[in-house]
Write a structure and sequence with these properties.
The protein is mainly beta. The chain has one domain (2-301, 315-689): TonB-dependent receptor, beta-barrel domain (Maltoporin, Chain A, Beta Barrel), CATH 2.40.170. The protein is 5% helix and 57% strand. It is built from 5 helices and 42 strands. It has a 22-stranded antiparallel β-barrel. A 5-stranded mixed beta sheet has the order 1-6-7-4-5. Strands 23-24-30-27 form a 4-stranded mixed beta sheet. The chain is globular.
Length: 690
């Protein structure tokens, strides 16, 4: 239904961007841009990394999260990908600042926030990487002009236009476990503007996520079926102004590996942006996001011979509405100023059935609320000769609206719980300072300090969840997180041929939100109900802090037909905790590894023949906050080869986890190990026109 509505919604934009636009400015020169304002020159003072369109179009998995994995230290809460992971576990973070599944990275697509409005996770099946121009990653907090929420960094995704996309590409791949991966995308000029489109469909029988030694009759393959569609258009209103519009949507169906654990996620976005590129540069953006999640959780017998329903979150709808305006006046003299403001309003709730008698639920729960941020920002940069300076700041006003928690038996009677949480509000002043100096023709040193913040998501405030026999309760009284940090680094660059970047940093995340163990089953606990023997009861809590010190190195070589991209990240996060969370003091946050490394070597010939191979290493990490269960390190190998058959047809072979490495994604309180994607091989064909 979501995709059908999306396609209907795109029709006016398509016709608007076609013949009607061709008559908008007769005889005018067409300027196809499709992007917002360029990054300010002051960004040279910070640690940045760009993944280009060539890499995005040749990922062995074809999934966006693999591109994220090219950034050493950028990780999701779980090691599993969007074939088998629960969508709510796929928040992204950097620099070891994990500990729960909400994103601590500000993720943007063409300026629009992409994290789920309710939960802060990333819907990876919503994106077709082939249609992106680049990913630009800025490590470190305090996003300044980009918006609030950048504790660990900012990822800016930019859509591609006719300068990078052909008129049409169609591809279809068949893979292991009866998997199908298809896509259709392209772009073209249209009158005084452009149109770009993309759609993909993926499905597969999936694999059994429980490790072979732990499986029982209740364990079944975790199937998946996913699709997305997008349409973008832009028109040059005059020589210095472009109007851009975008609609996109996705559907995502996954199995959880047992009966009663089906997952349904869907959403649609729409945005409109105006960009001025004259002497006074400016942009204005407005957007709408809608999401809905349904997810079942099961209780599995001790011998794993049977499963029964434990929790049915049959509807988790949410909406995000926002916008931003920004102006860059012409100062001259090496100065650059960006000023503006942004607003984002989020509403959402979870509706659940729980405490089952057999397969019949006996109680229902509804919880949710609203939140809003309203901010103003300014970023002032100076660049002259070898020196670059940057100072950016924000003031944000936030409000968490009245929250509710209602629980009642289906048989009727008085509510079990009918709670109202009073609205809360506050303000945050954050910012960043940076400097870079070119000490030699090829070498630049830089230093930066920053402070950022993040408002708790509605998911953290109101939605409980289960993983195996473990249950985690929400906490409607959570406070915002705050990060202070500093870094120094060096960049060595030889034009487009080589770049080496190294950074050392120290961050302190105060009021860090984590899932804190408060009890063990068997027993009944507030906010989650019954927890079986062997299961853990946790609640989201604000820790005193998480401190992390580390280093990052990135290398890029472009040597004609050969290309090498490599990265390494070391982080040593530690928890500062008192009170009920005191047992966590000095421990490492859950699901954070000390070491991440990757290397991709690629080769491409002039006739279109190309190949690449990627090696990744993820160090050992702990499953839980008490550091009692360890996930082993893993090394994986992926690769792809493309053979041109003609000027328009190519054959492609690709493989994920080619060595079939065991990658542990989780271990629950009963000691049951969940695995990430095993070896997956693909063969396919593509047709490209224009």
């Amino acid at each position: 239904m979501t995709l059908r509505l999306l396609l209907l919604a795109t029709l006016p934009i398509y016709f608007w961007s076609g013949a009607a636009w061709a008559q908008a400015i007769p005889g005018a020169e067409i300027v196809v841009e499709g992007e917002g304002l360029p990054p300010p020159p002051g960004d040279a003072a910070y640690s940045t990394l760009t993944i280009d369109h060539d890499r995005l179009g040749t990922l062995p998995s074809g999934r966006l999260e693999e591109a994220f994995a090219d950034v050493a230290g950028l990780e999701s809460y779980r090691r599993s990908d969007s074939q088998s992971a629960h969508p709510t576990s796929q928040g992204v973070t950097l620099r070891g600042l994990g500990g729960n599944a909400s994103s601590r990275v500000l993720l943007l697509l063409d300026g629009v926030p992409q994290s789920d409005p309710f939960g802060g996770w990333v819907a990876f099946p919503a994106y077709l990487p082939d249609t992106l121009a680049r990913l630009r990653v800025t490590r470190g907090g305090g996003s300044g002009l980009q918006g609030p929420g950048a504790l660990a960094g900012t990822i800016e995704m930019t859509s591609a236009g006719p300068d990078l996309l052909p008129a049409l590409t169609a591809r279809a791949d068949y893979g292991s476990r009866d998997s199908l991966d298809t896509a259709l995308y392209g772009a073209s000029e249209a009158g005084n503007g452009f149109v770009a489109y993309g759609a993909s469909y993926r499905r597969g029988d999936g694999f059994i996520p429980v490790a072979p030694e732990d499986r029982g009759a209740a364990d079944i393959p975790a199937y998946y079926e996913q699709g997305n569609a997008s349409l973008r258009a832009g028109i040059d209103v005059d020589d210095a102004t472009q109007l851009q519009a975008s609609v996109r949507g996705f559907v995502d169906r996954r199995g959880g590996g047992t009966a009663y654990t089906g997952i349904r996620s869907e959403g649609a976005d729409a945005s409109i942006r105006a960009v001025g590129s004259g002497d006074w540069q400016w942009q204005a953006l407005a957007y709408l996001q809608t999401r809905n999640l349904a997810s079942g959780f099961a209780s599995v017998s001790d011998d794993r011979s049977s499963a029964s329903p434990a929790l049915d979150q049959y509807q988790v709808p949410s909406t995000g509405i926002g916008g931003r305006v920004e102006i860059a006046p012409p100062l001259g003299g090496g100065w650059n100023l960006r000023i503006g403001g942004d607003v984002r309003n989020v509403t959402g709730r979870t509706e659940e059935r729980y405490i089952f008698s057999g397969t019949t639920p006996t109680r229902r729960r509804r919880a949710g609320g609203t939140s809003r941020t309203l901010g103003g920002f300014a970023d002032l940069g100076y660049q002259a000769g070898p020196l670059t300076l940057d100072a950016g700041g924000r003031i944000d006003f936030w409000r968490i609206g009245t929250g509710t928690l209602f629980e009642q038996a289906f048989s009727g009677g008085a509510p079990i719980t009918d709670a109202r949480y009073a609205p809360r509000h506050g303000s945050e002043v954050t910012g960043r300072l940076g400097a870079a100096y070119r000490v030699a023709p090829l070498m630049t040193v830089r230093a930066a300090a920053y402070r950022g913040w993040r408002l708790p998501t509605l998911n953290e405030l109101y939605r409980p969840y289960r993983v195996g026999s473990d249950a985690t309760a929400a906490n409607a009284l959570l406070d915002p997180e705050h990060l202070s940090g500093a870094e120094i680094g060096v960049d060595v660059a030889a034009g487009p041929f080589a770049r080496l970047s190294a950074t050392v940093f120290h961050n302190r995340l105060s009021d860090a939100i984590a899932n804190v163990t408060l009890g063990q089953g068997a027993g009944t606990f507030p906010g989650v109900g019954y927890v079986s023997a062997g299961g853990a009861y946790r609640q989201r809590r604000n820790l005193d802090a998480v401190t992390t010190t580390g280093a990052e190195v990135a290398l890029h070589l472009n040597l004609g037909e050969w290309r090498l991209d490599a990265g390494y990240a070391y982080t040593d996060p530690r928890v500062d905790a008192t009170g009920e969370a005191a047992p966590l003091d000095g421990l490492r946050p859950a699901q954070t590894a000390r070491h991440h490394a990757n290397a991709t070597i690629g080769w491409g010939a002039a006739d279109g023949l190309n190949a690449s191979a990627t090696l990744r290493y993820t160090g050992a990490q702990f499953e839980d906050d008490l550091n009692s269960t360890r996930l082993d390190p893993a090394v994986t190998l992926s690769g792809a080869v493309q053979f041109p058959v003609s000027n328009v047809v190519a054959v492609r072979l690709r493989g994920e986890n080619i060595t079939d490495t065991r990658v542990e994604a989780g271990i629950d309180g009963d000691g049951i190990t969940e695995l990430a994607t095993p070896r997956t091989l693909w063969a396919g064909i593509s047709v490209t026109l224009g």
